């Protein structure tokens, strides 16, 4: 047998080895079902954020006023000082 | 534009930005393929149980999806591979507890596969391959990925995947040649 033919045959046998029965629709649906909890949680969080932004647009302070002036930072001196 | 017209990358990005449910379309596209990936390596029963875990991990990690990859399969197989590894680790712990240790999960997988009689000719060669080479070979033959996509699944450079594939195919060819002409080895 030539090498090319041997390789082709080996690959065909491997393909046969990897054949599995397709899953049932119920199995796929059950796995998908588990996604809805995190999807809904994210959607809810996004909706709440959007609502909050929409109902309080004027409460957002201008950028230059958002952060109060910080007091000058104290320097910690070590015991040796 | 319908969801079918979007690439996986488009849908995943959309699901991250504002519509998390767009991710379900990606799941629907690849659920049979990912189940097959799991079933070929761990059996159908385990695949049924592990599929939901793949989706949960994929959804949680989708913000890290590489947008350049239009097809999500390599990314999903990479996640499925980690889920399988965790499954096998748990199985090993159980086996150790009962004083029976499976060293190589593939022995079990191969035994469980419902294969044609002819396919048994390649089993010894497949079993003898180093795990890294076997993984690339099976991603290409079973999952129909390109060597570059297989590299993405395994997290190795494409050149590494190509050379592993080359070695695996050569070993398989040699094994089949020797099996069919036993006097050649004498």
Structure description:
- The complex is a heterodimer of chains A (about 80) and B (about 190).
- Helices cover about 55% and strands about 0% of the residues of chain A.
- The longest helix of chain A is centred in the middle third of the chain and has 31 residues.
- Chain A starts with a helix and ends in a 26-residue tail after the last helix.
- The model of chain A has no long low-confidence stretch (mean pLDDT about 75).
- Helix content of chain B is about 70%, strand content about 0%.
- Chain B starts with 7 loop residues before the first helix and ends in a 6-residue tail after the last helix.
- Chain B has nine helices and no strands.
- The interface between A and B is large, with 30 and 46 residues.
Short description:
The complex is a heterodimer of chains A (81) and B (186). By secondary structure, chain A is mostly helical.
Give keywords.
heterodimer, A: 81 residues, 2 helices, elongated, B: 186 residues, mainly alpha, 9 helices, 0% strand
Tell me the helix content of chain B: 55-70%
Greatest contact between two chains: A-B, 30 and 46 residues
Q: Tally of extended strands of chain A?
A: 0
Q: How much is the radius of gyration of chain A in Å?
A: 32 Å
What's the SSE blueprint?
The complex is a heterodimer of chains A (81) and B (186).
Chain A: H1 3-17, H2 25-55
Chain B: H1 8-17, H2 22-42, H3 44-60, H4 73-97, H5 105-112, H6 123-128, H7 131-141, H8 147-154, H9 158-180
